[in-house]
Amino acid sequence: xxxxxxxxxxxxxxxxxxxxxxxxxxxxxxxxxxNQKRLNGGASDLCDLEADGTETTKLNWTATRTxxxxxxxxxxxxxxxxxxxxVTSH
Length: 90
Description:
Elements: E1 3-10, E2 16-22, E3 37-39, E4 44-50, E5 57-65, E6 72-79, E7 84-87
Parallel strand pairs: 1-7
Antiparallel strand pairs: 1-4, 2-3, 2-5, 5-6
């Protein structure tokens, strides 16, 4: 499988710890350097994920607010090369 690069963007004004799992890989492992990665409010960073046969990546993300860990959200998403995936803790 080929790798796709997508942008992960914090859609909150608050800082979040973000974890990304690659659902195209067996067991949906956490992506290297994306285990509780801190993204400041409005900030973004690139993430490399495996593509499937349709050149789509499937991922699961969890965002937890850095100053209030009760504010946590987890969702599944799909993206194409160059897409932006917005994460938010609420």
